[in-house]
Amino acid sequence: MRTPRTTRRVAALATGTALTALLTAAPAGAGTSALPVVTATGETAALHDDEAGGNSDADDPAIWRNPADPGRSLVVATAKEGGLRVYDLDARLVQSLPAPKPPAEDDAPGRYNNVDLVTGLRTTAGRADVAVVSDRGNDRLRVYRVDPDRPGGPLTDITDPAAAPVFSADQAEINDQRTAYGLATWTDRTSGRAYALVSRRERTRLALLELVPAAHGRVGYRTVRTLDLPSSFRLPDGTTWRPCAEPGELPQVEGMVVDPATGTLYAGQEDIGIWRLRADLTGRPVLVDKVKEYGVPGTYDEETEECVPGTDPGYGGKRLSSDVEGLTLLQERDGDGHLLASSQGDDTFALYDREVSEDNEYEGGFRIGAATPTLDGVQECDGAAVLNAPLGRRYPRGLLVVQDGQETPAVPDGDGGTRTATGFKFVDLGDVVDAADR
After folding, report:
1. 154 by DSSP, 3-state: which?
2. How high is the mean pLDDT of the chain?
3. Second label for 206, Cα 20 to 30 Å away, from 184, 265, 284, 363?
4. What H or E segment, with its residue span, contains residue 206?
């Protein structure tokens, strides 16, 4: 999630023109303002990142399909210190689960960052669909069983109480918050084993964790291996470039998704671009696309706590404006489909060919504009999830759910300002596919 910090901003972010309600094909060579526009069909109630709102901040969604009744499918979404939210397909709140309290008064509280799903996970109580969450505040994974008919709400915490920190050695290190951050799940089709791939905040490290059964139907995890992505890059002019950041920070990864058919992981290193690598974290990562700001020098100003950008040498990409976020996979039955990425810096979404043999070629993009004066568009999108399957009469062609970083209308905070408001937008996937095909 983009924060008020500007330490990762090394160039001015592109700004779009006024949104149009009509889909218009982007002519060759046109900028992002000419991308086609789709609109949301629904949105969740706003979350407020203040004391009155329980420090709730929308971040990342996942879509669980109810196989017995697709129209009763659910959206599971993280709300940072506000824990988890579960919504129905009308974007109505079904369940709210708090994040864990801090172990001691001066310790960091639970903070749910990203969420993904595993279908048919093996547990000691039988197979189960589960939601897996990265708890940044405690540097752990949390696992929730999904049962749509359970009284009191569909999610039940089945995390092994003995689950250890993912990256930290002790509570003091946890409190520094270089902890579990981005997350994607993966089930190896050869072995049937289920995994979570987790990134580390303010570091380039990725960890592969196997989800393992524990006593009484609970689920734990063990580290299989780790991999560090680059933090500095050789430019065509022979110089070495590092993205500007607060001293001590490295370019982190958040958005991740695994293509289950090929075991390919796509990881969004926020200020760099999208990496393609094996989900088992072996082999050599390949940079699929770069952000526009790639290669731009910057100087960190201690007084303003901002980066002052230098001259753009022109080595960046053309489609993504940092941060690159919200990676999700639009799968099609014939094996085709798209990798979807949120270009957070200019409020657009990019689509890449799913096929590695096509080198994940860029195939277009879109914006999410305002449907009505109250159902606004999407700005600064963080997490995203797509499901290309019928979901009852409301979404017969599937669903896209995205985080909205600037929910409107604004709510006064009582001190002359407005409350920070975020939420999730529901978009008919058929509209996105139609726009992409134009």
Report:
1. coil
2. 92
3. 363
4. strand 205-213
Please state, as a whole number, how many other Cβ atoms lie within 10 Å of the Cβ of residue 364.
Answer: 18
Closest by Cα among 17, 15, 4, 37 to 346: 15
* Residue 47 CB contacts under 8 Å (≥ 6 apart), including other chains: 53, 56, 57, 58, 79, 82, 85, 407, 421, 422, 423
**Three-class SS of residue 178?**
coil
pLDDT digits (tens, 9 = 90+) for 166-225: 999 999 999 999 999 999 999 999 999 999 999 999 999 999 999 999 999 999 999 999
Length, in residues, of the chain: 438
Angstrom distance (rounded) from CA 242 to CA 272: 9
Write phi, then psi, for 416 (nearest 5 degrees): 90, -5
Q: Which residues, given as ranges, of the chain have pLDDT below 50? A: 1-30
Q: Across-strand partners of 37?
A: 367
Assess contact for 61 and 42: CB atoms under 8 A. no
Rounded CA-CA distance 301/7 in Å is 9
The residue ranges of DSSP E strands in 310-358, in sequence order, are: 324-331, 337-343, 348-353
pLDDT of residue 12: 32
- CB of 288 within 8 A of CB of 273? yes
Q: Of 116, 164, 107, 170, which Cα lies nearest the Cα of 140?
A: 164
How wide is the angle at C-alpha 174 spanned by C-alphas 422 and 214, nearest 5°? 90
Q: List 333's β-bridge partners, or say none.
A: none
Peptide bond into 413 cis (omega under 30): no
Strands 233-234 and 240-241: antiparallel
The sheet carrying 253-259 orders its strands as 253-259, 264-269, 273-278, 286-290
Q: CA–CA separation, 161 vs 284, rounded Å?
A: 35
**pLDDT attached to residue 31:** 59
Q: CA 6, CA 8: separation in Å to the nearest integer? A: 5
Whole-angstrom distance, CA of residue 183 vs CA of residue 140:
11
Q: Count other C-beta atoms under 10 Å from residue 37's C-beta.
A: 21
Do you find a cis peptide bond into 61, omega within 30 degrees of 0?
no
Question: Using an 8 Å Cβ cutoff, are 378 and 35 in contact?
Answer: no
